[in-house]
Design goal:
Length: about 425
DNA sequence: TCTGGGGTCCTAGGACCC
DNA sequence: TCTGGGGTCCTAGGACCC
């Protein structure tokens, strides 16, 4: 039988914040989204106090003050670096692994010959904690979907000790399915939860026993795969070779609503620069670009508008100058005055490797490269992002995001390295 | 006052072809 | 008056994930 493990970091962002700020270990912690908008991670204590996932900050201010909850702006430089450390430990421990997200990793344990898989998982857990400082939970199942489900129960149950193996205890599978609400199944989101519950399907067990034809009709092949995985048939294999991205994007909600064209222009140019850096970093080029701007959907009564436009490159590129010029043309074409713009984004589409496919037989000419982009990238790699820029936008503006409680980049910036003093 | 960002996959429908 | 069948490609939108 196939044996998948899912290793999931507990309250990952909150755990990262606590790593270098021991004072936070005695307080409930929440981490906020960009712009300090809403809650995206909570320590166990914060969960117990009733802070909901995704709760907007302005709705929990009272709770924060009452219980002295520590509030952190999100610090992705820190989380990304800690994630790499965790993945390194996990990757070195198992025959093969798939990094699924910043805080999750699937392991393929088929070929692992150990007397007790549960003991092995406990050791892995302990090793990860000692070597990285991050607590993790491990779920083991015959499919990825069941490994996810096992992981969730491993986290919830005190007696599981952070590990639950359903492969070597097949009798537990039915009980696990019965106690899992259908909405907590991997692949069943909000809309499908409502639809399923309306039809009397409340648990993973009931979902697993729904008729194939019905599931196929209501939820397509995606839903059917989930049902089969719950029954123990593998539909999602371990993907240990990460596939190259097809699109990449830089989008932000502005720090405030903006009416002025020049301000939106600056935001859009800044995102163009950033997204171009991203594709160059991945060694890719883009075939097309898309720009969108939109008003605030939460502003009731205000006129709503969402505009977008796209352009195809004559020859795939990763050059900030070509990308920003194309974005600027789109921007001038779609811009409408008189709205309170709140968010914008630049997407690069049809990504590929340079020289992959010539646009036509007559278009084999290599992109002229004057070395400017790589020079800028090298300067920024050494001295920090944004050191060298193209002067496409003003440095500051209303559109810049708020991050009022940002922790230092303890592990990725020399000046932020924590120091310890012996007294 | 104040509600994130970055992805993937699938499907339906239209344009177009023979 | 009469108006097929089958295929591909593209795009927009909707579902999901973290």
């Amino acid at each position: 039988m196939a044996t998948f493990a899912l290793v999931d970091c507990n309250n990952f962002y909150a755990s990262c914040e606590r790593l270098f700020q021991p004072r936070l270990r005695e307080r409930p912690v929440v981490v906020l989204s960009n712009n300090d908008g809403c809650v995206i991670a909570r320590s166990n204590e914060a969960k117990l106090l009733g802070v909901g996932m995704g709760a907007p900050m302005f709705k929990i201010r009272k709770l924060v003050a009452e219980h002295d909850i520590a509030v952190c702006s999100s610090n992705y430089a820190l989380y990304g670096d800690i994630s790499e450390r965790v993945m390194t430990v996990l990757g070195a421990s198992a025959p093969s692994h798939e990094i699924y997200s910043i805080d999750e990793c699937f392991l393929d344990l088929d070929r692992l010959a150990v007397p007790s898989l549960t003991d092995w998982c406990r050791l892995l857990r302990e090793r990860t904690r000692r070597w990285t400082g991050i607590p993790v939970s491990v779920g083991v199942g015959p499919t990825k979907t069941l490994a996810k489900l096992a992981n969730r129960l491993a986290k919830k149950s005190a007696k599981a000790g952070g590990v639950l193996d359903l492969v070597h205890h097949p009798a537990w599978i039915e009980a696990a399915l019965r106690k899992t609400p259908v909405g907590d199944v991997w692949g069943v989101g909000r809309r499908w939860t409502v639809m399923l519950e309306e039809r009397g399907i409340h648990t993973a067990h009931e979902f697993a026993n729904a008729p194939d034809g019905w599931v196929r009709q209501r939820m397509g092949v995606v839903g059917l795969r989930t049902v089969h995985e719950l029954r123990g048939f593998v539909c999602h294999a371990l993907e240990d070779q990460p596939s190259p991205k097809q699109t990449t994007c830089c989008s932000r909600t502005f720090g405030a609503a903006i009416r002025e064209k020049s301000q939106v222009h600056d935001a859009v140019m800044s995102y163009s620069e950033r997204v171009a850096e991203k594709v160059r970093h991945a060694g890719q080029v883009a075939g097309a670009v898309q720009l969108f701007i939109r008003t605030d959907p939460f502003a009731q009564g205000a006129p709503q508008k969402s505009l977008s436009g796209s352009a195809t490159f004559h020859r795939p590129t990763s050059d900030t100058r070509e990308i920003s010029a194309a974005v600027l043309r789109i921007f001038d074409r779609i811009w409408r005055a008189g709205y309170d713009w709140r968010k914008a984004g630049v997407l690069l589409l049809d990504l590929g490797m340079p020289g992959d496919t010539p646009a036509s037989l007559f278009d084999r000419i290599e992109a002229p490269d004057d070395g400017l982009m790589s020079a800028i990238d090298q300067i920024n790699a050494r001295y920090g992002r944004g050191t060298a820029r193209l002067g496409l936008a003003q440095k500051d503006g209303e559109w810049r995001m708020r991050r009022e409680n940002l922790s230092p980049s303890f592990t990725t910036r020399w000046t932020d390295i924590p120091s310890a003093r012996l007294t």
